[in-house]
Design a protein that fits this description.
- The structure is a single chain.
- By secondary structure, the protein is an all-alpha fold.
- It contains eleven helices and no strands.
- It has helices spanning 3-33, 39-59, 70-93, 96-117, 124-141, 149-175, 180-207, 218-244, 247-267, 275-299, 329-332.
- Helix 5 (124-141) runs parallel beside helix 9 and helix 6 packs across helix 8 (218-244).
- The two termini are 31 Å apart.
């Protein structure tokens, strides 16, 4: 494993964390302060701006596009777009606690799918570190666990589509020998299309308001533009991280982002917190440290062709923030999936 590859991995992880935390802060201001709760529609705009930015970069020859089978890229884009919408709906039909459990369940299900279908083996030390991580995030963020049939079904579908989408992101980059930029450029229009078509309906159901009837003041438009620009970095870094590490590593990184956002809220925004929140964050950070150490140790034993899984946490951005009918700040501050 070359020093250049290691620096690339560290750079992609750093970019992912920084951009995801930045977009959470921006979206929290947009949704909670400025009263723009249309998270799914906002995510479709994120993906459209991402595609337009990459198209300009491609025309300026910053990267060369690579042809991918049309049916494959369409299905892949629709799958990723669907997973974002399902995660939003999951929060809309479930309690915050159950929604957090849904996000936590993505890691073990990803491990299970990779073990069954890709014949990947995870050591006992890696499994232990993931268990500690999940325990810590659960202590810090999970509150109540109210169940209902429709909400549970949506959560199950969200977990399945998110896991498969992230595994495919990694697998396609390796097998098709394409870069994260090339894959994102090809799939972003289809992800944006499905969210653009369904977003207004999903948001209207979750908030009881219409995105078309909203009053777009100058501050609202300004924060929407800023959110879209940050989302370009979020979406790019998401594909980059999954491609250079693994889907499980991406989920670990996502939980790191969650802890950082919670810590930011406690220290700078003076959000309410308890000893339980602090304990959970400390346990989660310990779990992430263990995962990083064990992954680096095992990575050194593998051939130079294997990617190094380093530590990582979102919601496909794909962690767009989610708003529901009660418009509570707590729900808005806990975003989904692929960070944008």
């Amino acid at each position: 494993m070359t020093a250049g590859f290691q620096l690339g991995v560290i750079g992609s992880l750093t970019l992912s964390v920084a951009s995801s935390v930045a977009i959470v802060i921006c979206n929290k201001a947009l949704i909670s302060t400025l009263g723009f709760p249309f998270a799914t529609t906002l995510t479709s705009w994120h993906l459209m701006v991402t595609f337009c930015t990459l198209h300009v970069a491609q025309r300026l020859r910053f990267f060369e596009p690579k042809a991918i089978d049309g049916q494959t890229v369409v299905l892949f884009g629709l799958l990723n777009g669907t997973s974002i919408g399902l995660l939003n709906l999951s929060l809309g039909f479930n309690s915050i606690g159950f929604y957090q459990m849904t996000k936590l369940a993505i890691i073990p299900f990803t491990v299970l799918l990779e073990t069954i279908f890709l014949k990947k083996r995870f050591s006992e030390t890696i499994k232990f570190s993931l268990l500690v991580l999940l325990l810590g995030v659960g202590i810090a963020s999970v509150t109540d666990l109210k169940l209902n049939c429709l909400g549970s079904t949506l959560s199950g579908l969200a977990i399945a589509t998110t896991c498969v989408g992230q595994i495919l992101t990694n697998t396609m980059q390796r097998k098709l020998k394409i870069s994260s930029t090339q894959l994102l450029y090809q799939s972003a229009p289809y992800q944006a299309a499905i969210l653009f078509a369904t977003g207004p309906f999903v948001d209207h159901h979750l908030t009881g308001r219409s995105v078309f009837a909203h009053v777009y003041t100058f501050p609202v438009v300004g924060f929407i533009i800023l959110s879209c620009l940050i989302a370009v970095s979020v979406n790019f870094s998401t594909f980059l991280v999954i491609g250079t590490t693994s889907p499980v590593t991406y989920q670990v990184l996502g939980h790191l982002k969650t802890c950082l956002v919670l810590s930011f809220g406690y220290t700078l925004l003076h959000d309410p917190f308890t000893a339980r929140n602090i304990l959970g964050i400390l346990v989660a950070m310990f779990g992430m440290a263990l995962y990083s150490v064990f992954s680096v140790r095992e990575g050194k034993k593998k051939s130079a062709g294997d990617a190094l899984p380093v530590s990582q946490m979102p919601d496909k951005e794909t962690e767009p923030l989610v708003a529901t009918k009660d418009n509570s700040d707590t729900k808005k501050a806990n975003g989904v999936a692929h960070d944008c």
